[in-house]
Each structure stands twice: as C-alpha cells, then as structure tokens.
Amino acid sequence: MPQRLFARGDIDGFFGLFIDNLLQLLLIHSLCRFVLKFPDELVTGRILPGAAVSILAGNIFYAWQARRLMAATGRADVTALPYGINTPSLFAYIFFVMKPVYDASGGDAEAAWRAGLFACIGSGVIECLGAFCGDWLRRNTPRAALLSALAGIAITFISMGFIFQIFANPAFALLPMFLIFTSYAARVRLPFGLPGGLVAVVLGTALAWIGKALGQPGFAPPPLEFSATLHWPGLHLHDLAASLRDPAAMGFLSVIVPMGLFNAIGSLQNLESAEAAGDRFPTRPSLLANGLGTLTAGLCGSPFPTTIYIGHPAWKAMGARAGYSVANGAAITLICLTGAVSLVLSFIPLEATLGILLWIGVIMTAQAFSETPRAHALAVVLGLIPAIAAWLKEAILGPVLVVAGTNIAKVMGGVTEMGLHLRGVIALSQGFLLTGMILAAAAVYIIERRFLAAAAWLLTASACSFVGLIHAYYLDETTGVVFNRFGFNAAGDFALMYLLSALALAAFHFAEGSKDPGAPHA
Length: 522
Fold this sequence. Notes:
By secondary structure, the protein is mainly alpha-helical. It has 20 helices and four strands.
C-alpha cells in the first residue's frame, strides 16, 4: 500500500530527535574547544563534517527500514529507529583517550584527534561484530533485563538532569513541559491540528524573549558567532594509518572495548524496546548499520561513535513515522557543514525544548514496567539501581565536590560514617549498563525458579568482574579521579562472590531434582 513520506507526527518527532542530536553537537563543540583546546579548523572543518556524514547515512537507512516494514506489514504506524551520536562514548573518548594524548604530547591537537579516530574505528568494529551474535543474545535475555537497564539511563541521565533544569527556569520552561505531557499522554488534539512539540517550543521561546524584554532574569542567549561557510567532509585514511602505527594506541583498548560493548548492547536494548512498542526490526541489519555508521564517522574525521537512540516508544507515541528521521538527518547535516552549532540556541532557549526529552525519559522508564510480566517488576527495580549509582557519582557527587574544593577520595571516610558508602556507589557505577542487565536477568530466573539459568547469568557477572568490565576501578587518592581498571583479577572479590552465588543457585536446582528449561524469552 502507498505510504506518505511524512506524517503529522513527524514534526513532533523531528523536534525531539533534532534537539537530542543538537545537544550532542553542542557538547562536541564545547568540550573539543575548551577541554582539548582544539583549533576551530579541526572542530568545524573536520570533526563536525565527519559527524554529519555518519548521522545522515544512518537516519536515511533507518527511515528506509521503517518504510520497508510498512510495505511488508501493510501498517502505516511504523516508527523509524532514532539514531545519533553516542553520548557515553563522546565523554569517554574525550576524557580517557584524546585528553591523555593531548597532555602527554604537550598539546598536540592532531595527535589527540588521531587517537580519537582510532578509538572510533575500534568501537565500530566491535559494533559490527556484535551484529552477528545479537539475535542469540536477544533470544536468551529476558525482556525485563533489556528494558530495566535502559530505563535506568532514562530516569537518571535523561529525566533527572532535564527536570531540574526545567524547574530552575519555570518562567519559560514549566508551561511547555505540561503542554507536551498533555498533548502526548492525554492525546489532546490542539487547535488547527498543530503538533504539541512545535507549539510548546514556540510558546516557551516567546515567554523567554518577553521575560528578557521585561528585564526578568533566567534567559541569557549566547552571543551570535556565525559565518555561513561550508565545510565539506573528506576521507582521513592517512591520519588513521598514522594512529594504527602508533604503539601507544593499543593502550586505549581498555577504554575502547568496554565502550564498543556498551554501544552494541545499548542498541540491542533499544531494538527490544522498539519491539515492545510494536515495531520489530531485524537485529543483524539494524546493528550492522549502526556499526557501519560509526566506521563512517571515523573514516570521515569524527572520533565519536553513533548509536541507535533510546526513546523509540516516545517518538511512536508522538505519531512520528519515517519522515522525522530523514528531516533530522538533513537538518543536522546542514548545521554541521555550516558550523552553525550554536546558531539555533542563540534564539531558542534550551529549556523550552527539554519537555520533549523529559517525556522520552519518563515513557521509557514506564515501559520497563508495563511491557514486562507483572511478576518481573522486582527484577526491573533491581536493574535500575546501577544506573542510579552511576548518575549519583557522575552528575551529583563529582561536580558538587569539585565546587567545594575537595574530591571523592578526601571525603570517603566521612560520608561513609554518615551512611553513604561511596566505594559501593563507585563499584556499582563501573559498567553499570552490563551490571543492571545481569542483575535483572538473574532476578527474573530466580523469580521463575529457573536456578541454572540464573546461575549462568551470575557466572557471566563473575567473568566480567574478573576482567574489569564491571565493578573494577582505581581511585587516585590525590586527585580523587576514578579510573577504569581492566586486566587479570581486576575485581577479584566480586568475581569470587558471583561465582559462589552461582554455585549456590546450581545447588538449589539439583536439590529440587528439577530440570531447568533454560532461559526463555520473556
């Protein structure tokens, strides 16, 4: 049956995905310029154009994939998978790959950038390999495990920070938030059929500028610094070859491998989320396209991997279909190629748009409970906790202690006496996505009395602890910086206890004389 390229809900979907992608571009621009001290030519002339190619290619593929599913099923309500730059990898590669190279080389921006390209390519290779074993993992992992770890990110790193920012600027952010929730949750049709997201952003922007004209504090648009110059992407094979010849590059595998696995598993969880919302996309091509997008970014000059985004059910609830993905790719490409990253936010206050992203975080958290069996609610809650620990460490403790002129290492003993066990917070935050998934999966099978399946997941936790993928860290006692620790017996105490717990569950199985049917798809 013929399908329209754009539906009315694609306008709302575009705003949500565009703002999400725009935030990543702003982070790239700010961190590269002010943390890494990269020159403008490197950021706007190579990194952002490379990001544009990867984002455009991925958005076009996932839009085509959605339209293909429409044609195959005869449905008009299929929503394309949201896609963009991976935020955790962005931070990891800036602070744990490029900045160490920049500092060690005495401020060599080119060397730091090339190290980032190597990390991006390494992540892309891992993501592509993950495409060929994703179906097996998806079949043998309970839905509660996949969705709860994802919901942990949604309720913390998405919802918490944004709702705090909204309530810090109620004059032009609170009304748009409630308008978005009313439009999407109650499915209220606005006059003239106007999209709720568009009306909310326009209203919030108008309130901000009116308040500014009246002298009210809150909205302070950044100075407009923009010159319409096109920056075309190119292939950087020579720079990649130079990074591969650098023996120091292998030292960053301890960062690259976990982040590649993080990206592959996160994309897999988002595919499960999309299926729970009614759109089942094939695992292998979906993950492979994601991996190829990351490889494209590295080849074209961007050190930042791409990923299938969290939030498919939210965009589906908005009425977005395939057109929002194409529109987002085109808009982000235009901004990257012209260097106009800050142009939009010179006129539109960020707070007026955050209600859309808050909605995405809330609905993703709700889905973890509504789309899993009622008996598995306990497992969902357990899977949320590692993400809460990671958010507490990264978003609250770290910044607050820095402003107070101290660090985690200096206050460790004192806060422990007050009931906040920081060593536990840090250990739980290390590899929190994997930890949340493993704990939730083990809990599901314990609830179902499938003790051998639960033991298998705890053996996985033991192996991950042993090599440092979860729980392992090194705390610098002077600076208070938490470093990842990878290698032999990296978190040996956790590895041993997970192993003993697995043996205990196996003993329960054999004591009952039952046959474990394995790990069904929940």
